[in-house]
Design a protein that fits this description.
Blueprint lengths: L17 H9 L3 H10 L1 H11 L2 H4 L4 H14 L11 H21 L1 H14 L12 H10 L9 H10 L4 H12 L4 H8 L3 H18 L9
Helix pairs in contact: 1-2, 2-5, 3-5, 3-6, 5-6, 5-12, 8-9, 8-10, 11-12
Length: 221
């Protein structure tokens, strides 16, 4: 499914040149960024496909990854390092991160379960930071482990506390996505929303959690 341009970002100036769009993007114009992404969707899709292994492609759709990259870009435009990167280079940077996250989510499940159990057993003695699960894995662990509430793992307890600061709809969406592994399209159907709005909701919720958990957030490699 191709990237669907949200109505609030749709532009009437489709004849703008790339240079004009880029100037607007650097001024934090989300509409210009959405138009730029739509215009260069084939290039972005080709890049995502080129960096996504066959094993991961068997589990996720390139269009879904591109949609998630696009949503992340639109929601983080104000903090984008566009003084250092061109819009396409920045989008490709976001794409690399998303592919890495998707790989971790789909292929580190067994390792995540093992790490979670090891963390619960080890208590506050802790292991090395290198083996700490990422934010998405920590979310899944905090919501699926029956003994998580009593765990001495500081990160696990802090994640549960942070989740309580989110709205009910945010918690539902996060639980469906990271604990139950539902695709965003299915979450959208259950919550009566569009796929794009769910992606934006998840993106914003994850940023809220990252901010709250900044002092204990595992280091991503």
């Amino acid at each position: 499914m191709p990237f669907i341009l949200p109505k609030q970002f749709q532009m009437s100036d489709e004849d703008l040149s790339d240079d004009q769009l880029i100037d607007r993007i650097k001024s934090n114009d989300a509409g210009a960024l959405a138009e730029y992404i739509q215009r260069h969707q084939s290039q972005l899709s080709g890049f995502v496909r080129s960096i996504t292994g066959e094993h991961l492609l068997a589990l996720v759709e390139v269009d879904d990854l591109v949609q998630e990259v696009s949503t992340a870009a639109l929601s983080s435009l104000e903090s984008a390092p566009l003084d250092e990167y061109s819009p396409m280079a920045w989008l490709q940077q976001l794409a690399r991160r998303r592919v890495v996250d998707a790989h971790r989510f789909h292929f580190d499940a067994k390792r995540r379960d093992a790490n979670r159990q090891q963390s619960i057993n080890a208590g506050s003695g802790g292991g090395s930071g290198d083996s700490a699960p990422g934010l998405e894995q920590l979310l899944a662990a905090s919501m699926t482990s029956p003994s998580a509430a009593f765990s001495r793992d500081v990160r696990m307890m802090r994640m549960q506390e942070a989740m309580q600061t989110l709205g009910e709809e945010q918690q539902q969406a996060i639980r469906m996505r990271y604990a139950e592994g539902m695709p965003t399209k299915q979450i959208a159907e259950k919550l009566g929303k569009t796929d794009v709005s769910i992606r934006v909701l998840l993106s914003r919720s994850m940023r809220q959690l990252e901010k709250i958990l900044d002092d204990v957030r595992p280091t991503r490699q």
